[in-house]
Structures are given as structure tokens and as C-alpha cells.
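Side project, low priority. Logging it here so it doesn't get lost.
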Amino acid sequence: MKTTNIGRKKRLMKMLIVAFIICNLLIVRVGYIQFVQGAELQAKAYAQQTLNRKINPKRGTIWDATGEIALAVSASVETVSVNPTNIEKADKERVARAMAEIFDLEYETVLKKVSKNSSIETIVKKVDKEQTDKLRVWMQENNITTGINIDEDSKRYYPYSTLAANVIGFTGSDNQGLDGIEKRYDDILKGTQGKILKLTDATGSNMEKEGEDYISAIDGDDLVLTIDMTVQSIAEKYLTEACIDNVCTDGGNVIIMNPKNGDILALASYPSYDLNSPYTINIPELEANWDSIESSEKSKQLQQMWRNKAISDTYEPGSTFKLVTASAAIEEGIVTDIDKVSFSCTGSINIAGTRIKCWRYYNPHGSESLRLALMNSCNPVFIGLGQQIGVDAYYEYLEKFGLLEKTGIDLLGEANSIFLKKDKVGPVELATISFGQRFEVTPIQMIKMVGTIANFGKSITPRVAKAKINSQTGEKTDFEIEEGSQVISKETAQKVLSMMNSVVSEGTGKNAQVLGYSIGGKTGTSEDGVNTGKYVTSFIGVVNTENPELVILIVLYNPTGEGGHQGGGVAAPIASQILGEVLPYLKITKNNTDEEMTVQVEMPEVTGLTVKEAKEILSNLELDYEIDTDDMEKIITDQLPKKGIQINKGTKVILYSN
């Protein structure tokens, strides 16, 4: 009996010890959960008991320079999602089938989402209210009150589709900027997301007493560009015609800038693409076989299509670069009188044992002043000036003009020029630089260079955005103009401008003349690489050389048409066509009033009319037109130029249909 009692005591003791150990382990575990994992578990519990649905804000509107024409807008749409745990099992199949039919989706895919063991699943994004209203009616008819969410959202639209596409860029599915202005100014445009917070119980059902916590989205701010839609449209119209007529295999660019503040009024690229469908390739040969092309090649081709060649690609500027050599020679005092006959062209020049020809070697220019040398685009004269300036001083001017660094324009993807390092430049290399070959610059660097001359020697940073508008208050904030240094004196700039005027009035740039206006410029032709058989033709110009108001650059890549590839014959006429329409629109005063003027008419209002009616009105005024439809009964929704603008007879008007 005694032995039995001892055994019982031992067992009891063991049980107490085990119980003590278990209690201590539980205390330790509770303490660990409370103090170590507490915050993490609390967050998980909160996540399980809430349904957090995002509300996308409207991106800010992108306006053209006038502040009246919207180039990018956000329209109200809706996004549909489901809370699978809140949909009765018996209802899942009919919910999935209804959504698949209404939104034209795969039934199996929708059913999979509706059947998931998750708190929330997105069914379809950015659909028009017409479609979501059908879902609302179906839900009411079928007494489905929980588990389906229809939330406000926004979708980006570009009213003018291809206009300034390589500048504006586009957005992704979540309204984030992916390219161009949309990406560069994403922080301003995107706004702040809102959310709908709903509490649920442990089963995932709604806790009706708590309701929903709704935090409104804050719309993005608007952005005002320096791009003027009318100027941009005119530039694109004539660039497109030029690239097609001259069979420019690698496209082209036009840039128009105000040299006084750096505002880019037009930055046109050909070919363009549709901003409303940015993943649709713009090359017909590729489009026909697009589905069979590897994804890596698709990505490469799309990147190339989106690329803004005016800032991202380099080219040899050719004789347009003689403006830099002339500016440096005058500034350094090598040439004091631009009209004094100080040079002689014999058809070629010998530099360090290398004979470099003039383009007119077969009929040398003979005795020339600097003005005549620029008018004749005579290589030997500028080679000789380069040798006198010297490598060190020449590179100082390259640096001052901003040609050795990026311009700082407010667009992403800007490339830099490609020059030999200064210590690698010998007499022959300096000779080729002096007349614009064997190095590369970007078009935007060239427009900044000529803008510096046109701004009487003072550098200005080019820009494509000039202000933002607060979406909540309407307050407008102007962006600062970035002024640079005085690169050359005002006197030097005036002499160069005077010579540029002679180039257009009497020299190789005659085809750039615009009746009634004082136009200065310089033509250029260069090889696209060494022994490629490809050429780049260009024209760089100034409007009103006594008091410059605009600068323009036209670059055509590899023109292979019957018109050849000389800048004076191919690029200069485009400048005349563009400026012939742009200058009256901008109300820039004519300064050659004694010349015979082109007959002008006032642009009528044709919006709201059918294509047929508009065609009849324009024909009576001897105006041509271009429109994106063959349907004569479609309604005109917009027009360029706008009503009341004076334009030349024969001008092609751009019409937009509904």
C-alpha cells in the first residue's frame, strides 16, 4: 500500500512538472506572439478583415501653347473587380458567365477568378459606363448585392492621335507615363490614388455596420506645352510630304523654336505613330507579319518607332556647321570685314599632305569675301579659317555653343554629340570639322546653336513645357526660362545673321525664301557615315535676321528620290512651305512689303459640317484639304488652321472627323 502511494506521488509530481513546463512554454509563446510577432500579425489580421480597392485619379490634361487645345485628356471609365469569398458558391458560374458576355471575356478565365480563395480579383479595367451599366442592371435583376465592385477609373485619350506623338508619349495600363512628356512630367500629371476601404468578418463577409471608408483620388495637375498645335500640324504636314516625295528611307525632323526663350513651337518627326494605339507598328511590311515576329524583335521595332530622333539620334550636320566656324573666326578677330575679299578658292586645299576638294572643284569660286564664301558654301575658305582658329580655340567655341554636352531639354533619352577628343585632333581632323563632317551632333543641339546666334549671342536652353496648372485651385505656375552665357558678342551675331540673309536671298538657300519676310539660313549636305552611299540633307534658318523671332531646322535622312540629296534643292523648299503658313498664323510682321505678295484668304469655320459640305466651301476658296476618312457624310470635329486665320490660296487644310 505504501509503495502504491509513493508511485502515485511520483506520477503526480511528473504531471505537475510537465504541466509547469507546458505553462511556461505557453507563457513564452504568448509573450513571443505578443511582443515579437504582434505588429506583423496585427497587420495580417487587418489585411484579412479589409478589402482595399484603389481609385485611380485622372491624369492632368496636356495643353498646347495656346492653353485652349487639349493634346492629351483623361476620360472617366470604370474598373470591375470581385470579392470571391463574398459570392455564393451557387452564384459563381452565372456571375462569371454574365461578366464574360457583357465585357467580351473568356468565360473560363473569369470563372477561375470568381472561384479563387482570395479577397479581391480584377475582372476588367477601364471600360465605358455603358458596359458597366449593363452589369448593374444584371445585378439588380438577379439580386446580386455583394461581391461585385464597380469603381471609378480614368483612361487616357489623345484627340489628335499622331500629332506630336514622339514628343507627347503615352501611358500604361495603370495610367503611368511610359514615354515622352507623359513620362518626363509623370510626377505632375499622375495625381494621387484614392481608395475604398471596407471591413469584413472572418468569413470574408461585409460588416455592414462599419460601411465603407472612401478616400477620394486627387487628380493630376495640367501641363501647358510650348508646342503650338497649329504650328506643329503645319510642320508635320510638309515634313510628311517631303519624306514621301523625296523617298527619305530613314524619315526626317523639323524643329521650330523661339530663340528668345527656348520655346519649341514644333518638333515634328516622320514617320509618326498613333498615341491611342502605341503598340501598333507603323511599318506596313512588319504589320503584315507582326504575329510571327519574335518578341525581342517586336520590342526593338517598337522602341525605334517611339524614338524621338530629333533628340536621341545624331547626324553629320554638313555645311550648316559653317555657321560655327564663321562665328568663331569673327569673334577671334581673324575676319573683321565680312565683305572684304580676303580668300581665294582654287577648287581644293592641301592640309598636311591631304588634298581636300571644294564641292565645286570643277569650277572654283575664285576670290571671295566671308559673306560670299558662306553664300557659296565654299569648303576651302572654312578649312583655312579652322586652321587659323586652331584646335584649342575651336573646341572652346564648341563648348560655349553647347555642342560638347546635352542641351538639357526637358525630354528623356537625349543623346550627346560625337567628337574626337581634343588631343586626337590633327590638322586634317580640324579641317573636316570646320566644314561640318566626320563628327555627329543631334538636331536639338543644332537648333540651340543657331538659336544662340539668333538671340544675339546668348545661349538659351530649349524646352517643350512652360507651365503647370493646379487641378485643385486652378493656379498656374510658369516654369523658369534657363538662360546660358554670352557665347559670342552681339556684333558678331549680327554679322553672321547678315551673311545668313545673303545665303537665302542670293546663295544656296534661295529656295527657302518667303515673300515679304527676311529669312536667313544655311543649307547642308553630308554623308551618313563613311562610304555608306547614304546622305543627310538639311536647312537651318532664322526668321527676320535683323530682330530674329523664330529659328527652324529641317533634317531629311537619306533622300533617294529624283530631286537628289542637296540641302538647297530638297530641304530649303520645305522651310519656305512651312514658314509661308506659320508666319501669318503667328502674326509675325512682314518686313519686305514692296515685294509681290501671295494671295491670301481667311480660313472659314467648317467644324460641325459634313466632309462633303466642308470640301465644297474649301474648294470655292481654292484651298485643299486632308482628312482621315473617305466617308463624305462624316462630321468635321476639328480643323487646322482655325477659323479667321489668314492663309495662302492653295494651302492644304487638315480636317478631323468624328
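Brief comment: Residues 44-50 have pLDDT under 50 and may be disordered.
Revisit when time allows.
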